[in-house]
């Protein structure tokens, strides 16, 4: 019996040694397709980037239900597989050092099964864990779409609020699943995409997301995507700190920038009994839509002490000046023409526009982000004091 076990062990060792080992940075992606009609078709390996969102990396051909990609890679990154007759449909996977397998689902290609390497096993594990949440959200939308439409038509706020609350509960379940996966799998590269999704949703506190990021494995933090998360978290922290300095009850920090004629104008120069700091831009649709209301209010109340200083996040001087003229904005205007890199926007923690700050005669911030009649009422209240 011992002799037989030795022979079996020796045979298995010989079999393994016949397979060429991969180099330090080499990968081998093997795809399997059960449908024989794909034989002879081209397969594309792609990465994110370019004008259309995807950049070709390599091409292979399906032979006997399989295709193979081989090359070297410096670190893990998200890649995609597509076929010549369906280029818009893609299967994603993590391209990294090692042998990677993809079992192609020809009916629904994004449901293809990734495996072989550590990060692809984890990617499939993540998809499996989130499938139930995704199905619940999809079914909820499908079942309640007509109900929501009817409620909107009838202005049935009770029904709309209930549906919104139920959907938010499903979203919360998904977020909980995502956070638990990140906590339990610190070495998984897919975590960088989960964390980016949490940041983008706006439903998670920065400190909580930062804690998730800090608990990631050191190797994951070395990746390009992880570095982008670091930058996002740093900017969010800067914004929070800036917003704390311009909360209601604080004195508005002074600032200055060139006006359309190139002369430097400061907030102090534009102060009235009531002053509105209006962050906007020519390219901002909601800003332009609100402008007629602001113009009417300014024309009515300027002689009583209302001043406005518009801080534009434009980057094109001509577009900025044209918008001022077209919308009849006759108050003070300034801009560094630096788009979202505007230092005044950073100073005031402005990350979206339109954004407004209402100041009293002492320069104290008394209200933020009011619109329409609500803004006018607040201005009148202050003017009457």
TrEMBL record:
What is this protein's name? Thiol:disulfide interchange protein
Ranges for domain Thioredoxin: 246-385
Q: Coiled-coil intervals in this record? A: 206-242
> What coarse category fits the chief subcellular location reported for this protein?
other
Keywords from the named record = Coiled coil, Cytochrome c-type biogenesis, Disulfide bond, Redox-active center
Q: Which PANTHER family match?
A: THIOL:DISULFIDE INTERCHANGE PROTEIN DSBE
Q: Where in the cell is it found?
A: Cell envelope
